[in-house]
């Protein structure tokens, strides 16, 4: 100690002393130590031997030997020293005797890359810091450095005698007891305040009554309002570091406190993520969940957050949701060990519960919605199955609506489930059972409020018998046949003919024939109102189903209307709300969509699609309205408790049942999935090798597993194209487009198929479609140029030559495209295939365009004849232009007026309600206008029961 | 043992020879600059500012002061101001604005003799509460200052009349996790370590480590006291777990002897409180990691809580010079960057790699 004192005053002399000391320190110290060591324990010379050292297990003694060897007392034996060291290292790698003085590392100690990395890292840091510093300085110029926030000066000049320790010793205490009571009260207040901030939904951690934990007093919020942005970032980061440290020291409460501080200064994804992890360790699942959701709101695909949410779900018993999150993680990072581990754990847990209960469609609903594309049978099944008002006794409804065909509950377990990412899969033998099954699962599937639980339990036994009794009554002999569908299965309280309509609708919907399904549902609704029944549930379901059809058809307006009706009948039913939300969203009415999604979430917080959409819309609205976007929102209705479904409120037994059922379905699904992926891969491999025929087989099998996988259709289309089987290629493309109406590949391949079929017109329109979707596709541009030339040539040819020469039969004897037969119209005659049975706006547009391009008024008339006038405006959507109007007028005038004047009138009556009609009307040229006048003149000359002359006149006024 | 490249490495990035004896070197927060404090051979003090640029330390500013400057801290200054507080051989406490170094922002005659050590808290966003500076001097007193109050310390810890005055070699702030709680730890030449509670104005704990205490530091100033490291003259250091204080046994500790000479300094990594570097009298640096025990406290026979110390492991060491390394400072902004100065009249910028894996 003297040395140091001396140094402070006479540093120069000190340096000399120190220098000499340290110069000799090595040997001097060692010789002293070794000599004393030798003295006390007497290491004999014969112990300094390879054999002895090798056998010696006494670490302390070995260290002594090493010391002597190193000292050189008995001579220097470098190899023996090394040997001794390595032996010692084996016995005790942390031995102090092994510590060696290392020279400081320099550039030479690293590889060039490593060194460059280190240096670059430093350089970027210096540059960045310079910028930060400048920013900091600039900020400080504008900021007045008021000390308002700083606590007052400590009451000054206190005197503490450090040597007189007896007095303070008595008052010494653990840190906890130092804190006066009012301080804790203050702390409590702070916690409450924070609770309030997080909209009261999550419970805040109660400070544990743990002694010696001082973090009760750590403020969870930091007032950072007076700080500049730079400072905030720094501080938030520092608080986060503190949290990390506390976390590493297993002090999770404290970690949470520091993360909270960090978040209160500046919220970051990392801090949320870390806090979630700390909350998980503390087993505060709900808090952890909130944090995970926060992260996912900021960064929807954050792996850590997903992983942590999965952990939370796992501990909350929601294995299904947990495994979904894990799958998402594994999709992004297939080898994430934590995810794999947890997943296998979950699978084990789920398989521990043997499946005996019917599977539930709940989760599937969520995924479907997420995917937003592929509705499968569960959709309808669910719709019917779900107790619309959960508070009403479920047992009764169950039995009345029990499906006829469902004899065994086990049936359901085989039911393959659609998973959002995998797309739906149906195995044909099972698929038809879909809509009539699933009732049994309802009581578990949806959370029934506690009070009705018992009834459900009672009802379930009854249910089976009633169901079978009804089934016997209602079914026909064909029910057992594999492909037969029992269309007479009773539905709710609907009379048989309406049930039949509804079931037909369900079937059509399932098969993707949405327009037809829509018609069935409409008829059912009509029939319902005619019959004057009073069963709001059923009507609600019908509306809701029809809404689904509208949604599929892209007719958001009507979808919304139907959903609203359904909701009037049954407020707070999930499906119509969800559909309406989707419809609103597609109409870009985000505020309304937001409200609906939020309502959905109030009813059932686990609807992932709603969460995602809410996030998406929130971003959109913030972009649109800025920070006050919430103020512009309509009120979000408060969902009564009876309609809310929180999964976590389920009693454990329910969870177990649910888990079992989910497990069963998941197994089946996974098998299908695995097989599907394998087949697809094989198919793709064949394509790469050019073995298209083989690939076709694989893809066909794929489609058997999942008939709604768009990619497979486009792939198969490619194969067909390569094999010059254009007709089939076109079919596949059509199928693909039905699934994904804006799939570029499908359009492009259909264009190629059309080209192959020499249908240049359709080809060019497809290509234009491609270019509209993505203007950068050069192949499409090239093709388009080529096709335009071909189109001109073919048009010229049709004028020159008799049309007979161009036949559709070029398609190597294969059957022509399904739509094609209709289009061989006799009046104008051409080789263009016109789909005269449009089922969507797109198809209608295609057909109309095709007809218009070749001036085929007859085809147009046919098209119009087969189209419901009411649908016309919707089909035309916003594509109406002057030429179209004049063409339609021409078609009506020349063909339809004579045959079906009523229809012509109705068309005209609807046409003027189409979008852009007024604008388009102004585009008409003179003789086109004359045509219109002519048409109305002729129309008014027709005598009809449907319309009067006055009405025609009124209508004409709108046109002329 | 793990392969050498997976361990942290200590790299001497920049070496700069100086024409004066440097006592202390400190990074300026939020910058790539550091300050060197020392004295010229002619007996005057010097303050220099260097900036790390293109692998070199470039002198930006140099001022000569009347008295040799022993120690400095930024701890009580705001991030925007970044004023440095220094103690000199004459017992003066000054606060300097680095932009205008001619006249100190604050000045007071703090002690009768040399200010050996200085520490600050409440600034830089480290520690809630008022900005305060603590100084320890050979006159045996430890004083706490508030830059807003001139001439009078806000707290003064000195031996009562008649007691022998011990030379206070080191002081450190800690436990500043809210506006009121705050502790000062002081180490004396006789091996005493005293922990003063500024909130209660009482001596909270004391111990003796038998050898002069060269440096004390809390692993963090602004958390509920967690760990305290004290280094001693004969090359040992002690890590106290300050979470659990037993009524009679005090804090549990673990000690390690690593250096063959005095450990002049200990500094915790700002980004990870469980890693710290000790700088020794033989010109070497040791990088340590503290490992917590499975349970940090247990009940003794009387049912009182008693702490359980963890263990320390050596991550890396390096010999820089034959002269003692008297000061060491981690960059608060860049993990692994540190500046150290020794009595070989050299200041070095070091990079410690792979601190994350440690």
Automatic annotation (TrEMBL), chain A:
Residue span(s) of domain RNA-polymerase II-associated protein 3-like C-terminal: 837-929
Polar residues bias (residue ranges): 458-473
The keyword Transmembrane helix belongs to this UniProt entry's keyword annotation: no
Region described as Disordered: 377-481
Keywords: Cytoplasm, Repeat, Signal, TPR repeat
Localization (cell): Cytoplasm
Name of this chain's protein: Sperm associated antigen 1
Lineage: Eukaryota, Metazoa, Chordata, Craniata, Vertebrata
Automatic annotation (TrEMBL), chain B:
Cellular component GO terms, alphabetical: dynein axonemal particle
PROSITE patterns xref list: WD_REPEATS_2
Family matches, as SMART domains: WD40
Entry keywords, A to Z: Apoptosis, Cytoplasm, Repeat, WD repeat
Biological process annotations from GO: apoptotic process
Presence of the UniProt keyword Cytoplasm in the record: yes
Highest taxon listed in the record's lineage: Eukaryota
Function, as annotated: Key assembly factor specifically required for the stability of axonemal dynein heavy chains in cytoplasm.
Protein name: Dynein axonemal assembly factor 10
């Amino acid at each position: 100690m003297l040395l140091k004192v001396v140094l402070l005053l006479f540093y120069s002399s000190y340096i000399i002393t120190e220098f000499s000391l340290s110069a000799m320190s090595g040997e001097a110290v060692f010789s002293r130590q070794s000599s004393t060591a030798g003295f006390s324990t007497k290491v004999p010379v014969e112990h300094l031997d390879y054999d002895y050292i090798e056998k010696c297990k006494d670490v302390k003694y070995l260290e002594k030997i090493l010391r002597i060897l190193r000292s050189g007392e008995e001579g220097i034996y470098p190899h023996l020293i090394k040997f001794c060291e390595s032996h010692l290292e084996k016995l005790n790698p942390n031995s102090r005797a092994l510590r060696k003085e290392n020279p400081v590392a320099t550039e030479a100690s690293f590889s060039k890359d490593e060194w460059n990395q280190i240096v670059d890292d430093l350089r970027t840091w210096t540059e960045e810091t310079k910028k930060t510093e400048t920013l900091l300085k600039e900020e400080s110029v504008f900021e007045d450095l008021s000390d308002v926030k700083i606590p007052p000066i400590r009451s000054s000049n206190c005197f503490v005698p450090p040597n007189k320790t007896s007095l303070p010793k008595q008052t010494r205490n653990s840190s906890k007891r130092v804190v006066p009571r009012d301080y804790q009260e203050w702390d409590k207040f702070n916690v409450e305040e924070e609770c309030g901030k997080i909209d009261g939904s999550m419970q805040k951690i109660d400070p544990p009554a743990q002694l010696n934990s001082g973090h009760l007093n750590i403020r969870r919020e930091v007032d950072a309002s007076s700080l500049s942005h730079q400072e905030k970032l720094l501080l938030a980061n520092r608080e986060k570091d503190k949290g990390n440290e506390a976390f590493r020291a297993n002090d999770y409460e404290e970690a949470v406190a520091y993360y909270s501080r960090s978040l209160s200064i500046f919220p970051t994804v990392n801090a949320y993520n870390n806090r979630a992890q700390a909350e998980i360790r503390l087993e505060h699942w709900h808090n952890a969940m909130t944090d995970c959701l926060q992260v996912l709101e900021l960064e929807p695909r954050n792996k850590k957050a997903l992983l942590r949410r999965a952990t939370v779900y796992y501990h909350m018993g929601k294995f299904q949701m947990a495994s979904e999150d894990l799958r998402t993680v594994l999709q992004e990072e297939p080898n994430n060990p934590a995810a794999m581990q947890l997943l296998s754990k979950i699978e084990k847990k789920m398989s521990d519960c043997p499946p005996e209960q019917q599977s539930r469609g709940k989760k599937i609903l969520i995924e479907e919605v997420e995917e937003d594309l592929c509705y499968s049978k569960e959709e309808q099944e669910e719709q019917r199955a779900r107790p619309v008002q959960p508070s009403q006794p479920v047992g009764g409804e169950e039995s009345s609506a029990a499906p006829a065909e469902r004899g065994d509950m086990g049936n359901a377990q085989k039911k393959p489930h659609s998973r959002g990412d995998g797309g739906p899969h149906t195995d044909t033998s099972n698929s038809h059972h879909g809509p009539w099954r699933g009732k049994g699962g309802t009581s578990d599937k949806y959370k029934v409020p506690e009070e009705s639980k018992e009834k459900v339990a009672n009802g379930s036994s009854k249910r089976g018998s009633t169901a079978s009794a009804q089934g016997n009554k209602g079914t026909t002999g064909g029910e057992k046949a594999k492909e037969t569908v029992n269309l007479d299965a009773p539905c709710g309280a609907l009379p048989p003919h309406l049930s039949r309509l509804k079931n037909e609708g369900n079937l059509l919907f399932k098969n993707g024939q949405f327009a037809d399904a829509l018609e069935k549902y409409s008829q059912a609704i009509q029939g319902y109102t005619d019959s004057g029944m009073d069963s709001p549930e059923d009507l609600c379901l019908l509306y809701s189903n029809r809404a689904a059809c509208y949604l599929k058809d892209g007719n958001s307006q009507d979808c919304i209307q139907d959903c609203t009706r359904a909701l009037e009948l049954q407020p707070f039913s999930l499906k119509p709300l969800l559909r309406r939300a989707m419809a609103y969203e597609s109409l870009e009415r985000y505020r309304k969509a937001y409200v609906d999604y939020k309502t959905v979430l109030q009813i059932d917080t686990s609807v992932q699609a709603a969460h995602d959409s809410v996030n998406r819309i929130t971003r959109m609205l913030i972009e649109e309205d800025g920070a006050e976007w919430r103020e512009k929102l309509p009120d979000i209705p408060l969902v009564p408790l009876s309609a809310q479904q929180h999964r976590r409120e389920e009693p454990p037994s329910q969870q177990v049942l649910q888990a079992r059922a989910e497990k069963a379905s998941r197994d089946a699904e996974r098998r299908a999935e695995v097989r599907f992926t394998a087949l697809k891969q094989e198919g793709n491999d064949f394509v790469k090798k050019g073995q298209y025929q083989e690939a076709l087989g694989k893809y066909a099998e794929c489609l058997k597993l999942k008939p709604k996988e768009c990619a497979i259709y486009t792939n198969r289309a490619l194969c067909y194209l390569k094999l010059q089987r254009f007709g089939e290629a076109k079919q596949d493309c059509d199928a693909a487009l039905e699934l994904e109406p804006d799939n570029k590949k499908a359009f492009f391949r259909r264009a190629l198929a059309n080209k192959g079929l020499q249908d240049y017109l359709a080809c060019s329109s497809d290509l234009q479609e491609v270019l509209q979707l993505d203007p950068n596709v050069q192949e499409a541009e090239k093709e388009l140029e080529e096709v335009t030339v071909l189109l001109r040539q073919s048009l010229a040819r049709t004028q020159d030559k008799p049309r007979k020469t161009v036949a559709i039969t070029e398609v190597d004897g294969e059957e022509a495209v399904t739509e094609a037969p209709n289009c061989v119209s006799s009046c104008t005659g051409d080789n263009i295939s016109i789909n005269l049975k449009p089922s969507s706006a797109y198809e209608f547009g295609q057909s109309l365009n095709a007809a218009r391009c070749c001036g085929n008024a007859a085809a147009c008339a046919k098209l119009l004849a087969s189209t419901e006038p009411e649908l016309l405006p919707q089909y035309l959507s916003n594509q109406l232009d002057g030429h179209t109007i004049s063409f339609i007028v021409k078609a009506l005038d020349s063909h339809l007026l004579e045959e079906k004047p009523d229809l012509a009138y109705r068309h005209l009556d609807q046409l003027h309600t189409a979008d852009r009609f007024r604008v388009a009307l102004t585009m008409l040229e003179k003789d086109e206008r004359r045509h219109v006048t002519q048409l109305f003149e002729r129309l008014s000359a027709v005598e009809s029961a449907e319309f009067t002359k006055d009405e025609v006149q009124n209508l004409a006024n709108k046109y002329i | 043992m793990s392969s050498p490249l997976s361990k942290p490495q200590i790299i001497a990035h920049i070496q700069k020879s100086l024409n004066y004896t440097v006592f202390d070197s400190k990074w300026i927060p939020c910058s790539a600059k550091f300050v060197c404090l020392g004295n010229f051979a002619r007996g005057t003090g010097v303050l220099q500012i260097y900036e790390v640029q293109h692998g070199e330390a470039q002198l930006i500013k140099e001022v000569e002061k009347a008295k040799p400057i022993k120690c400095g801290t930024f701890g009580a200054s705001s991030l925007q101001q970044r004023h440095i507080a220094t103690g000199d051989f004459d017992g003066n406490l000054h606060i300097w604005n680095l932009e205008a170094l001619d006249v100190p922002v604050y000045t007071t005659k703090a002690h009768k003799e040399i200010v050996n050590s200085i520490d600050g808290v409440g600034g830089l966003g480290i520690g809630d509460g008022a900005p305060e500076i603590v100084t320890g001097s050979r006159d045996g007193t430890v004083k706490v200052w508030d830059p807003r109050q001139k001439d009078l310390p806000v707290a003064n810890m000195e031996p009562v009349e008649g007691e022998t005055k011990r030379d206070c070699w080191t002081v450190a702030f800690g436990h500043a996790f809210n506006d009121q709680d705050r502790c000062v730890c002081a180490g004396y030449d006789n091996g005493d370590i005293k922990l003063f509670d500024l909130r209660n104005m009482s001596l909270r704990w004391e111990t003796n480590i038998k050898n002069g205490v060269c440096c004390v530091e809390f692993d963090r100033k602004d958390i509920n006291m967690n760990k305290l490291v004290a280094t001693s003259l004969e090359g040992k250091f002690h890590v106290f777990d300050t979470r659990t204080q037993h009524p009679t046994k005090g804090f549990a500790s673990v000690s390690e002897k690593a250096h063959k000479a005095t450990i002049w300094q200990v500094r915790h990594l700002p980004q990870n409180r469980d890693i710290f570097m000790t700088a020794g009298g033989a010109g070497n640096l040791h990088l340590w990691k503290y490992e917590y025990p499975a349970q940090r406290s247990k009940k003794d026979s009387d049912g009182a809580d008693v702490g359980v110390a963890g263990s320390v492991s050596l991550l890396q060491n390096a010999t820089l010079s034959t002269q003692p390394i008297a000061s060491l400072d981690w960059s608060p902004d860049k993990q692994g960057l540190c500046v150290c100065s020794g009595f070989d009249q050299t200041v070095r910028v070091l990079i410690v790699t792979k601190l994350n894996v440690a």
